[in-house]
TrEMBL record:
PANTHER family: DUF458 DOMAIN-CONTAINING PROTEIN (PTHR39961:SF1), HYPOTHETICAL CYTOSOLIC PROTEIN (PTHR39961). This is DUF458 domain-containing protein. It comes from the Bacteria.
Length: 177
């Protein structure tokens, strides 16, 4: 993929992640702003400081007759003891090419992760590790893209998980696409 096209995708994803309606949904708390999500993460992770927590961010998409439905999830996993999640939906005009759609998913997750880290830092720091889950795996049509998409996300400084370990994208976000 050319650098021009890749840079264009990065810019589009950052614009979608930061400039779009940033309303998140929570199964237990309803509609929330990203600031409220961050406050909830801080409160949740401060309840039991001896537990280990992970923040997971993943995006999934589905092409439909109106374009592409992207759902990004922020998961706070209390390791061994459950967790909670928040999700938001973004729409974009049709992307017929699977490779470009997977790049868009990864870039939306990366941009959201950067925003979450920035807001958590303003709230006193990141209470735990952060992973980006991308919806690619060794089986199916995305297997040829694993190295390049994982490399792009790792190159941005994030830990990456792919299928079958990418539950943030392939289970949580997928539930709402």
């Amino acid at each position: 993929m050319s650098n021009v096209k890749t840079n264009s995708i990065l810019i589009q994803a950052e614009t979608l992640a930061r400039g779009a309606d940033s309303t998140f949904n929570s199964p237990s708390r309803g509609s929330m702003t990203l600031r409220e999500v961050i406050d909830d993460i801080v409160s949740f992770t401060n309840k039991d400081l001896k537990d280990e927590y992970k923040i997971v961010i993943g995006t999934d998409s589905q092409e439909n007759h109106n374009g592409v439905n992207f759902v990004s999830a922020v998961v706070v996993h209390r390791v061994g003891r459950g967790g909670r999640y928040f999700w938001r939906r973004l729409y974009k005009s049709s992307i017929k090419n699977l490779r470009l759609r997977i790049y868009e998913e990864a870039n939306l997750s990366r941009a959201l992760a950067e925003e979450v880290i920035e807001l958590l830092a303003k709230s006193g720091g990141l209470p735990c590790s952060l992973e980006i889950h991308i919806d690619v795996g060794m089986n199916g049509p995305t297997k040829a893209m694993i190295n390049e998409v994982v490399g792009m996300v790792r190159g941005s400084g994030f830990e990456v998980k792919t299928k079958p370990d990418a539950y943030g994208a392939s289970n949580v976000a997928d539930k709402y696409t």
